[in-house]
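Can't paste images in this forum, so I'm doing it all in text. The chain is below; anyone willing to post the predicted structure tokens underneath?
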Amino acid sequence: MATTINRPRLRLRDLTLRDGQQSLFATRMSQATIDRLLPLYEDARFHIMEVWGGAVPDSVMRYLDESPWERLRIISKAMDSKGPKPISLLSALSRGRNLFGYVPYPDTVLEGFYKEAIANGLNIMRIFDALNDIDNVKESIRLINQLGGIADGAVCYTVDPKPTEETPTGMFGKLKGMFGLRHKEPEKIFTTEYFVGKAKAMEELGAKIITLKDMAGLVNPSRAGELIAALKGAVKVPVDFHTHCTPGYGLASSLMAIINGVDILDTNIWWFAEGSAAPAVELIYIFCQRMGVEVEVNMEAVGRIRAQLYEARKELAPYDLNKDSFPKAFDPLKDTLPAEVAALFDSAIEFALAGDEEALLDCCHKIEAYFNFPKPNELVKNAEVPGGMYSNMVAQLKQLKSEDLLEDAMKLIPMVRRDAGLIPLVTPTSQIVGSQAVLVALDRKNGKPDYTTTNNQFISLVKGEYGHTPVPIDPAFREKITGSAIEKPYDVSSYRRPDNPVTEFGSPLAANTEEMLLVELLPNVANGFLRKRRSEEAAKKQAEAAAETAEAVAEVTVEFLPVEGPVLTAPMGGKVLAVNVKPGSQVKKGDHILTYEAMKMENDVEADADATVRQVFVKPGDVVGTEAALIEFEPRK
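Text version of the structure:
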């Protein structure tokens, strides 16, 4: 048994149904799969379940042809999220003023979205901004609290650029040139004070949870411990730690967060954990058991979920980069660890307490290797960039047939970051910086000055439309990129709500408020998704109408009486269009009693004498042949 630590119980936020499947399987988990898991989650009783936001609203429509709102409602019902004591609180992820996209929305759109999300069962909205610009999250925090939700303020973790031989062309470049500091590392921006300051600002605005959100997995163990301890000392609300295992820090950094008093830890369940996802809850549970820390979750129920997730992962094989190398099956409640592996857990705890980061990481990597989890991504670790940013740069260079420029483009990232105000490398700014670094590398290859070629998103970023950058952008650089030295924020007053067109089926594209929000936030994918819904509804109405007609016909079908009187017959074959009489009707000679179509002409049939109708043998829509019986009259006296 390792050293016992003195700390409260640990609460967990399970990411499996959102960030877990998004990180590992491209957000392709179907509602049918989730439905199989929900009864098991009811017993697990995680403190929080992250089930929505991120890529979910887009992906479930785009790839699964499912409604994101319906997904939230189904999970909410299972977890009783709107009850006085929810089984688990449900959380989602959004980009503050940008929600799920890149365009800042006016307050009316934010309010409409949060109101609908909370009404449909959401408890917690985790809000982050790619620039850590407090102005971009403050209205979301206010609205979520006002509407009865819980605002979770996420401070995005990032690192300062490594020293580089590149001379930035903006403000940093001027300072270096003036003072001869070409080879001196710039002043650190992303200090402990920086992150604590952002957290305190969010708490003051009303955030009920503060999350240190390390989306790229770049926070190393000693830094994680330092930041969590600092946040715990600075804010009064619960502190959550979110990281990924991509560069190999995730498990060790999570252990350091626990030791330093983190209130909530983000984890995934075994088959959906580690690699580019968050640490496995089973490994965290072992660490906590050996430190005497109670984990607030039913691990027996987690085991039942784990069994179902194994089948779910096999179903997701087309999107699984490690489909041929599953982790080793393991149940921490039933399986005994080999002595040498158990010793690794104890040693990791001792090294963490002693602050020996290298030895701690070595133990954690050996633990992950024993269970056959993916190895650390050394490129991401050394380059200190998110894995998705790197893969996007590779894809861009392949498209441009310039794969040989990858190393040059990677080296340009620090320069581009500094020129653009030292922005954090998180979605979407990581993709913007990576794409622009590729374009600068191409400019140099073609003998052109830096930034001859720029992408539209980079121009918008430098202009000021994404918000305030951590350090001000040099006005001269802004003028070079945008044509004006003046910072120009995105003008939300110019926002125009998209139309809700009437479809070819006679109904509006969006049938209600929640669907209109999809049109506003994800217009391209929502258009196709909703058009298909309207088509299905129109087809259903047609089928129901046809069924009603058939039912009505069946109800009026009678057995005909033996013919006793004169019978009116069809002069020629055709289709009956209208019948103007019924049994018992009194007709006079010349009365129009029936209309039928023959030879593409409508023909009126008249009574040839005064009479009483005894039987009608046809109905509208019937096709009759020549001399077919149409109507019988009472025998003439």
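The CA atoms of residues 170 and 419 lie 5 Å apart. The radius of gyration is 34 Å.
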